[in-house]
Design goal:
single chain, about 250 residues, mainly beta, Methylamine Dehydrogenase, Chain H, four-stranded antiparallel beta sheet, about 10% helix, globular
């Protein structure tokens, strides 16, 4: 199997998760199961991509012929995009920008949750957002050594409020599913928490031999992206069970 084919299979597996989620949830009101470090997302008949300092929209009613739509300026350091119900959460090096996406053709700025300058993937579920802040050599623009998980109350979407911060090693991608939180924390491993009480996380599992980049959680299956492979875990019970491995890089 060639390196290109391995990568295509891995990408297809990840895209299939998001596609299935969209079909089962219906409409525009859903929690996303895409990767937390994604720079694009689909809601309704529109594709959203991060392009420079802006959010670029494409009308995809006709998938064979995407039509460039609006371009909404945000700021230069935006990095990630996560659909949450009727909103878009855009992670930047200075904070999380929140846009109202009730009208998918016209995202409207709501507010921003500001934090110290750092890389910050974001996911959300049930009025709670989870943001990892990472300051290391692989995070351009970060200042100082800030490595933590911030948990944010979105009950009032116009006034997001910090619930609590948790120290981490060098956190990257993360996922949340039914109150179970998964965090890629560099050489500290893949960490799993019970987040039913965001102010008092409890550890469910730590896979210390995994140094992952991003994760997707859906229906009891966790898809974990490492530098050279895609792992699949069963998280219906803990500790998690490894289901499969798929190499995404050709052996030297």
């Amino acid at each position: 199997m060639t390196d290109a084919i391995r990568r295509l299979i891995a990408l297809a597996a990840i895209m299939a998760i998001s596609a299935c989620d969209g079909e089962s949830s219906g409409g525009n009101n859903q929690d996303s199961t895409q990767g937390s470090r994604a720079r694009f997302a689909m809601m309704g008949d529109f594709l959203y991509t991060i392009s420079g300092d802006s959010l670029q929209l494409f009308d995809i009613k006709n998938p064979a012929s995407p039509n460039p739509w609006a371009r909404v300026r945000v700021e230069w350091d935006i990095e990630t995009l996560f659909p949450y119900n009727t909103h878009l959460l855009i992670g930047s090096q200075s904070g999380v920008h929140i846009f109202d996406n009730t009208d998918p053709a016209n995202p409207a700025y709501v507010t921003e949750f500001t934090h110290a300058r750092s890389c910050d993937p974001v996911v959300a579920e049930s009025n709670i957002a989870y943001v990892t802040l990472r300051s290391n050599d692989n995070c351009t623009g970060a200042i100082g050594q800030i490595n933590q998980l911030d948990i944010i109350d979105l009950s009032d979407i116009t006034a997001p409020a910090l619930i609590k911060s948790y120290a981490m090693q060098a956190p990257s991608g993360l996922a949340i599913d039914g109150g179970t939180l998964f965090i890629c924390d560099s050489i500290a491993g893949l960490k799993v928490f019970d987040a039913s009480n965001p102010a008092a996380l409890t550890v469910l599992d730590i896979q210390t031999d995994i140094n992952c980049y991003d994760v997707i959680a859906s229906g009891g299956r966790l898809y974990v992206s490492e530098a050279d492979q895609l792992l699949q875990f069963d998280y219906t019970r803990f500790p998690m069970t490894l289901v499969s491995k798929l190499a995404t890089r050709a052996d030297p």
